[in-house]
Each structure stands twice: as C-alpha cells, then as structure tokens.
C-alpha cells in the first residue's frame, strides 16, 4: 500500500460511516479522470485535494475539521454552467448567497497578492461577485450530497 493509499484510509477512518461512500465516489471519479490527489493530516484538520495535472490548479478539496466534513469546489469554469446553480438544493444556494464577496473585485489592493480574483456569475437573476475560495464550500449533509456531486461533475467536465 502506497503512502497516499495509507493516508486515504486514515482519512476514511476519521469520517462518519454514512459519508464514506460519498467520499469514495468523489475520489474514484477524480482519480479515474487523472486528477492528482494530495492528502494532508494536521492536528485539527485533514484535507484531500484534487489538482488538474495540466493546469496544476486545485479543483476540489474535501476537508474534515472538528468533525465537520466539507467540500470546496473551485469553480474555474463557472461561467460555462452558471444556470446549473439554480438546480442546487436550497441550502447550497443559500450558502453561495451568504458567502463573502470578492474583495479584490471591489479594490484590487484589498486581498493577498496571489489571489486569483473571485468568481462572477448569476444566481437567481442576481449578479454575484464572490470570493472563489469561499463561495462554493459546502458542509456535507445528506440532502446536498447529490448536488455536490453534480457540481463537481460540471466543473470536471469543463476541464477534460
């Protein structure tokens, strides 16, 4: 068993049994599509990152922090599928609406230098300019697992 496989098994041992199938599905899909994965375990945080091997950019993070499992999708291609956002469960839409606005779109000097700027998209007919590192981050709950998987598929397909 490789170090990566060992780290993955450790990650699975930390999450609730009801979430293992969900995490396995994301992991299997991303690896089958040739995304690179990296797993980090720290004192209060464990993260699996999936990176596009060509662009070297992270597409998905699965995080376990203080017992809460969450998934962050970096919507690099959100403009290609912004209409899809309307199909997400209400809790996910509300999460997007209440996430932080992009400081850099308001004032380019307001954010850290390496910031790639926020995501601009329409949701419920409203133009949104949200922080790309926060707006598509969702706590994993039974009612939004299908929405998270569909969202990952939309972004993943744009990168293939």
Protein model, in words:
The chain contains 5 helices and 7 strands; from the N terminus they run ααββββααβββα. It is α+β, with helices and mostly antiparallel strands and 160 residues long. The strands form 2 sheets. It has a 5-stranded antiparallel beta sheet. Strands 5-6 form a two-stranded antiparallel sheet. The model has no long low-confidence stretch (mean pLDDT 93).
Short description:
The protein has 160 residues and is α+β, with helices and mostly antiparallel strands.
Number of separate helices: 5
Count of strand segments: 7
Strand proportion = 25-35%
Nearest-angstrom radius of gyration?
16 Å
Distance between the termini: 29 Å
Q: SSE string, helix = H, strand = E?
A: HHEEEEHHEEEH
Q: Largest sheet, if any? A: 5 strands, antiparallel
Low-confidence stretches: none
Report the oligomer.
Answer: single chain
What's the arrangement of strands in the largest beta sheet? 1-2-3-4-7
Mean pLDDT across every amino acid position = 93
Report the structural category. alpha+beta
């Amino acid at each position: 068993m490789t170090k990566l496989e060992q780290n993955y098994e450790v990650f699975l041992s930390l999450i609730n049994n009801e979430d293992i199938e969900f995490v396995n599905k994301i992991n299997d899909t991303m690896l089958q599509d040739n995304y690179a994965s990296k797993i980090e375990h720290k004192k209060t945080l464990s993260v699996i990152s999936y990176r596009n091997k060509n662009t070297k950019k992270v597409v998905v993070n699965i995080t376990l922090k203080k017992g809460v499992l969450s998934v962050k999708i970096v919507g690099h291609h959100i403009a290609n599928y912004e209409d899809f956002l309307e199909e997400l469960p209400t809790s996910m839409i509300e999460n997007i609406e209440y996430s932080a606005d992009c400081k850099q779109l308001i004032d380019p000097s307001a954010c850290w230098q390496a910031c790639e700027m926020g995501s601009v998209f329409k949701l419920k007919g409203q133009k949104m300019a949200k922080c790309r590192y926060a707006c598509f981050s969702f706590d994993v709950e039974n009612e939004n697992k299908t929405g998270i998987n569909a969202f990952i598929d939309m972004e993943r397909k744009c990168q293939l």
